[in-house]
Amino acid sequence: MFEAANMVTRNYTVSTLAKWFNSFPHYNLQFLRINNTFSPEDSDYQESLGFWAAVPAAWLTVTLFFFLVFFCARCCSNGTARKHPAYCLRWTIGILSLIALTGVAIGLYGNVEADGGVHDFAAAAEKANKTIMGVETQVNDMNRDLTGAMTPLVRLKDLVTNIPIAGKAINDTIIEVENLIKELGTIPFDKEGVNLQLVADDTRFYEYYRFLGTILLLVFELVVGLVALCGVGRGSRCLLIFMTCLAFLCLFVCFGGGALYLAAGVGAGDFCVSPSTYIKDQVKDDVIPKAVLEYYINCYPAAVNPFSQTISQGRRRIIQANDLLREVEGLTTNLPVAEEIIKEIGGQLNTTETSFDDLVVLVQCPTLHEEYVDALNAVCYDALEGMAYMLVSSLAVGLLFTVSMVLASLAWQRLGRRKQYIEIDEEDPFLPPSGMTPAMGRTSQGPLTLRASVQRGRWDHYLRYGGDRSERQPLLRDNRTPPPSYTYAVRDRGAGVQGSQQDPTVEKRHW
User: Fold this and answer.
1) pLDDT tens for residues 146-195?
2) Interatomic CA distance for residues 402 and 411, integer angstroms
3) DSSP calls for 55-69
4) Most buried one in 76, 114, 237, 421, CB count within 10 A?
C-alpha cells in the first residue's frame, strides 16, 4: 500500500561554507565562549552574533580615527610639496579603483545569487503548502461524502423499522461511518493551520526591498570608483577631492554592510549545520505531532507512514459498511424505495474508497521531503553563498577605498591647477602692441607668469605712462579713448600679475 516510502529520496548535505561559518568562535558580551548551536531566542546567542557584527564596526572606527590623525597632520604641514604630475600616485589610484570595481561586480553577483536562493526557498514553501492543502482538501472531500451518506442512512433506518435485523445492520453502518469521519480528522497533520503560502509571500516582499536597496548601495560604490578613475585620468584635483568625500561616505556603507552580512552568515551557518534539530525543537507537538514531523524530515526508506494505520482502518470500515448495506439490500427486496436509497449510499461509499488511493499518495513522505530539501538547499547553498560574496565585496571595497583616499589626498596636493586661458580680441585697438603683451603660461610657481623681466618692465611702463608718443597718435587723431572701466581692468590685471616691482633697466619717459 505504501510502496512510495521505499523510493530513493534526495537528502540534505551540509555545505563546506556552512561548516566554515559555524566554526567561528561564539562569545557573548562577557567574552565567555558559548555553544554554537543555532538558538536565536537565546540572549547569549544573540550577543555572539552581535560580537561578530561589531568586528567590521570596530574596523570602521579605527579607520575613522586614522583619517582624523592623518588629515590633521596634513593640515598642520607646511604645504610646500612640489607640484608635479604624480604619475605613480595616479596609476596606483587607478589600479585600486579598477580592483574596487571588480569587488563591486562580485557584490552584484552575490546579490543576484542570494536573491535566487530566497526565491527558490519561497517556491519550495509554496509547493509544500500546496501538498499540505491537497491532503486537507482530500480529507474534507471524503468527510463531505461520508456526511452526505448519513442522511440517506437515517431515512433507510426509518423505512426498515419493521425489520429488526435490517435496522441493526443500518445502525452498525452508521457507527462505522461516524468512526471513519473521526479517524479521517486526524490525518491533516497541520492542526494549527500554518500557512506556508503566507510565509512565501512575506519572504518575497522583504526580499524585493533588500535586493533593491543592495543594488542602490552597490551602484553608489560603483559611482565612487568611476569618479576616482575620471579624476586620475584627467589629473583633476576637484574630482579627486570629490571622490574622497564620496569614498568617506562609502566607508559607512561598506563596513555597515559587512557587519550585517558577517552576523547573518554566522547565524545561517549555525542553522544549516543542523537544521532538522532546530525545526524539531521549534514545532510544538500540538501543531504537528513529532512522529509526523520526523517522518517527513528524514523520510528513511524503511520509515513507516504514521497515517498508514488510520488509512488501513478506514478502508476496512468502508468494506464493512458495504457488506452491511448488501445485507440490508437482501432484507428489503420488497421495498423499491429502500433499494434506491441503498444505491445512493453505496455510490458515496465507493467514491470515498476510491479517494483513499489518492490520499495514500498525498501523505507519503517523498513529495514533502523533496520540497524540504529544496528549501534547505536554497537557503544553505545559494543564499549563503551569495551572502558570502557580498561580505567579501563589502570588506574588500571598504579597504580599497581607504587606501585610495590616502593616496588621493597625497595626489591632489602635487597636482597643479589647470591652465587658465583668457580670450582676447587681437583686433581690439585698445590692446597694447603684441611685443608688450605678457606671455601667460603655467610654471611651477603659479598659473600665470611673464616670460622675461624685460617684458614685465615694458608692460609696467606701458600701463604707467601709456607707451611712446608715436603709439598714441592714432588714438588722438581719431578721438578714440579706451573706456575707463577697460583701462582700470587692464591696469589691475597687469598689476596683479607682476606686482609692484619694476625693471630698473627700462627707461622712464615723461611727457
Assistant:
1) 888 888 888 888 887 777 888 888 888 888 888 888 888 777 665 555 68
2) 14
3) HHHHHHHHHHHHHHH
4) 114
Rounded to whole angstroms, the Cα distance separating 271 from 284 reads 19
Q: Distance between CA atoms of 464 and 164, rounded to whole angstroms?
A: 143
Which residues 6+ apart lie within 8 Å of 55 measured at CB?
259, 262
3-class secondary-structure state, position 35:
coil
Q: Give, as one character, the DSSP assignment of residue 444.
A: T
Q: In angstroms, what CA-CA distances link 96 with 118, 248, 251?
A: 33, 16, 15
Our CA angle for 326, 329, 334, nearest 5°, is 165
Residue indicated by cell numbers 428489503: 332
Task: Please give the Cα distance from 309 to 103 (Å, whole number).
Answer: 58
Measured CA to CA, the distance from residue 277 to residue 283 in angstroms comes to 10
The residue count of the chain comes to 511
State the burial class of residue 201 (Cβ atoms within 10 Å of its Cβ: 0-12, 13-18, 19+): middle
Q: How far apart are CA 508 and CA 511, in angstroms?
A: 10
Measured CA to CA, the distance from residue 111 to residue 106 in angstroms comes to: 9
d(CA 164, CA 172): 12
Longest CA–CA separation in the chain, Å: 155
CA distances to 248, 428, 429, 439 from 434, rounded to whole Å, are 50, 11, 12, 10
What are the pLDDT digits (tens) for 49-94? 999 999 999 999 999 999 888 888 877 765 555 555 567 888 888 9
CA distance 486 to 497: 17
Neighbouring residues of 57: CB distance < 8 A, sequence distance ≥ 6: 255, 256, 259
Q: Is the Cβ–Cβ distance between 117 and 380 less than 8 Å?
A: no
Place of cell 566554515: 20
Query: CA angle 172-319-147, nearest 5°?
Result: 60
- Distance from C-alpha of 273 to C-alpha of 53, rounded to nearest angstrom: 20
Tell me the HSE value of 198 on the side-chain side, using a 13 A CA sphere: 3
Distances (CA, A) of 97 to 230, 249, 371, 396, 412: 10, 16, 44, 12, 16
Q: Are 197 and 126 in contact (CB under 8 A)?
A: yes
**Single pTM value for the model:** 0.75
Distance of CA 70 to the CA centre of its chain: 34
The answer to whether the CB of 49 falls within 8 A of the CB of 267 is yes
The crossing angle, in degrees rounded to 10, of helices 365-377 and 290-298 is 70
